[in-house]
Each structure stands twice: as C-alpha cells, then as structure tokens.
Amino acid sequence: MRLAGLRHLATLANSSVPAAEVMPARIRGRVPEAIWRRTSARLHKKPLHPLCTLRTEIASYFENRHPGVFNMHSDLSPIVTTKQCFDDLLVPVDHPSRAPTDTYYVDDDVVLRTHMTAHDVAFMQQGKTALLLCGDVYRRDTVDRTHYPVFHQVDSMRLYPPATERALIQRDLQADLTGLAYHLFGSDAKLRWVDGYFPFTSPSFELEVFWEGEWLELLGCGLLHREVLFKANVASDVNGWAFGLGLERLAMVLFQIPDIRLFWSEDERFASQFSSGTLSDRFKPFSSFPSVEKDISFWVNGNFHENDLCEIARSLGGDLVENVSLLDRFQRDGNISLCYRMVFRSMERSLTHDEINNIYYDIRESVATSLPVTLR
Ligand code: PHE
C-alpha cells in the first residue's frame, strides 16, 4: 500500500486508514518506541479480552435501545492532527492537555489522540448523525495502579432532527446513559449527575456511580457546543449530544482487576479467567509477587516534569514499573531536591535483584543525561 503524507493520513476519518503496524517507522516521529508498539495491540478487538467484552456490551446496549441507529467504528488510526484533537473541539491553545508533557507528539501538528472525541467533527462533516467509536488513546502521565499511558475509550455522538428542543436532547442523553450504567452495574446501582466541564460541550455533565463506598466517575457528556457543530458544517438548527467513557477503570471495577498493567499481560493465567466473554467474569489474582523498591534523588536545574521521569522509567522498566511517586522534596539555598520512589513488581513472576539493578542504573543514566537535573 502506498502511504500518503502524515497529515493526510491523520485527516482520514474512516476505517480505510492503514493499521498502525503497517506504517513505516519514519511515521513514529517523536513517539517513544515502547508507546508506538502499543498502537498495533488493539486490545479492544481481541476476542474475550475484558476490554473487548466491555466494548461489545456497550455496543449491544445501544443496539437494543436504538436498533440500527449507532454504528460502531473500532479501527480508526490513533494518529490525528492537533486540529482534530484540540482546535476543532475548542480546547484552548494554552490548555495543559496540549503540552508535550501530557500528549505524545508525532511532529508539531500531529499527535497520538488523547481522546476519541477527536474523530467526531470529521464524521459529522461526512453527514453522520449517530456514532459509537472505540479505540486506544494516549496520555503521558504518572505511573501507578490505575494510570497507564495507553488506555481505551468509547465515545459517542448523536445529532437530532432540525429544531429539536435542547431540553429534550439532554433528557434523551441522560436517559440513555443512566440506562447504560444500570445495564453495567445492575438495576439497583446508585447514580448521580454532577456538573462537568469540557470545552466542546455545553452544558456538560459527569455521571458517577456509588461503588464499594465511593463515588466513581463513569463518564463525561454534554450537548455539543454550537461552535463545534459550526466547524462540522452542521445546520444551525441542528443540535446533538456527545459522551465519552474510559474502559480500563470501568473494567477494573466490574471484573475486579487490581492493576491496569494486567490488561497488557500475555500470561495465560490472566486470559483464561475471561473465558465467558460476559460481564459475569471475575478476576482472581493468581498470586502477588514481592516488590523491589528503588529511590532516585536529584537537584532540579530547570524545567523538570514528573511525567518525563515516569516516561523514562516506563520505557526502560516496561510493565515491571508499578509505581513512581514523590517521596521527599526539600529546598536548600534556593535549590530544589526531589526524591522519587520507584516500585518494581511483576504480575507474573519473582524479580531478581540483578535484573532490577540493571534497569535502575539505566534509568539513572538516562535521567542524568536527558532531564534538567543533577543526580545526588
Ligand atoms: N473526550 C472526553 C475525555 O476524554 C470525554 C467526553 C466526550 C466528554 C464527549 C464530553 C463529550 O475525557
């Protein structure tokens, strides 16, 4: 297949976009190899994988509720332009989500999508009036049990016939989504709506579910902002809604999966526990292996960002890195010293001290040479 220019690739909003794995290496741009490799994993399409089960469960809920209305697209390339990901969705130019510390830039105006909403405008421009999208999204972040630089979202949009009252659209949206929450959590689930903020919807809401003693954010949604609809060439008397939901946190709660890295595990003991492909699967940890902890301390000389340290730990330690957290911070003579604790643990086996020491020294070296810090 002949590949068109990057920008052209990123603006194709349909499933004819080549799969990431057949893209030539030059397209990787500034994206780290370890992250790039994830773009071809497609966990949400892997049969019996809990993320795939959840995706199909959500699709079939919408199919039952509104037969033939929503088409699900699950093969969109994660490479999009900053225009698609941010500008068209009214994300302010100085919004933190655009910063290279938070987003993986392929080049100056092409990124790995940070949310599936990035595709909405292009689909509306093609005249689509109802969508369900599912795919992998990428965000640079800290490292812990619930954060991973790649996760999956289901995103949806629906436009209504001209002159439909906005109040009616909002009622429809909220009824569809509380219905979805009851479908996933059971009809006795305790739900509440809270006001939300997203640049591309107004008003915006979040739906929360009370689960094991706390309110969990389940999804974000709202009525599509007039200006977004304008950019999408939608007629001025047409309105609609959008919502977006992250699959990992939801799957962790529903299937009782204790660590987000497990979704990437190739261990049969993980996969074999999801044999029914339904929401009734429950995960039982196969064992808990001991952790190894390593601390790294340094003076900060410039613009240090925690996500850069996490990125280095993640690219050299892979999924053995369980947690990176600030242990200590002090100031002397106007200089700042930070100490981070890195926790290493395998989900599958015991680690050896040699193996972790090697990774640890590689991390130290990379931190010393690529970050604005002086190791102590
Ligand atoms: N894109 C938002 C996110 O990633 C979720 C969202 C989608 C909110 C659509 C409102 C409407 O958090």
How would you describe this structure to a colleague?
It is built from eleven helices and 14 strands. It is an alpha+beta fold. It has two domains: 259 residues, Bira Bifunctional Protein, Domain 2 (BirA Bifunctional Protein, domain 2), CATH 3.30.930; 84 residues, 2-Layer Sandwich (Alpha-Beta Plaits). It has a seven-stranded mixed β-sheet. It has a four-stranded antiparallel β-sheet with strand order 12-13-11-14. Strands 2-4-3 form a three-stranded antiparallel β-sheet. The protein starts with 5 loop residues before the first helix and ends with a strand. The site of phenylalanine has 11 residues, from β9 and β10.
Mean pLDDT: 92
| Sequence of secondary-structure elements | HHHEEHEEHEEHEEEHEHHEHEEHE
Tell me how many strands there are.
14
* Distinct small-molecule ligands in the complex: phenylalanine
The CATH superfamily of the largest domain is known as Bira Bifunctional Protein, Domain 2
Overall form: globular
What is the architecture of the largest domain at the second tier of CATH?
Answer: 2-Layer Sandwich
Number of domains: 2
CATH domain fold name of the largest domain: BirA Bifunctional Protein, domain 2
- First CA to last CA: what distance? 51 Å
DSSP strand content? 25-35%
CATH class of the largest domain: Alpha Beta
Radius of gyration over alpha carbons?
A: 22 Å
From the helix content, strand content and strand pairing, which structural class follows?
alpha+beta
Low-confidence stretches: 1-22
Report the oligomer: single chain
- Tell me roughly what share of residues is in helical segments: 25-40%
Q: What is the makeup of the main sheet?
A: 7 strands, mixed
